[in-house]
Design brief:
With 95 residues, the chain is of the alpha+beta class. The protein contains two helices and five strands, in the order βββββαα. 21% of the residues lie in helices and 29% in strands.
Length: 95
């Protein structure tokens, strides 16, 4: 199984949110991760998702330090997603 790190860009492959992009907030266990997009899934209410239902990209931001994750806010997440999206070839309006 692919290792996902905090701050990594992922796309949902299954469920109602199929095709939506998120940042990995943290790893819960070997199967599940918490995701945020800053809008429908704010940092205060992240989405729990099975990592088998995610497409990962090698792009992301460095959120390895615990204090950076705790100080992350929704506007930063939205900005990071917009910065990472042009690199994936996805139009920005789909963010």
């Amino acid at each position: 199984m692919v290792e996902l790190r905090p701050g990594q860009l992922v796309r949902s492959l299954a469920g109602r949110d199929k095709g939506k992009h998120y940042l990995v907030l943290r790893e819960l266990d070997p199967v599940y991760v918490l995701l945020t997009d800053g809008r429908s899934r704010p940092v205060s209410r992240p989405k729990k998702k099975n990592r088998a239902h995610l497409q990962h990209y090698e792009r992301g931001i460095d959120l390895d330090k615990e204090h950076e994750i705790d100080n992350l806010n929704d506007s930063q997440v939205i900005r990071y997603l917009k910065e990472l999206m042009p690199a994936t070839g996805v139009p920005e309006e789909e963010v």
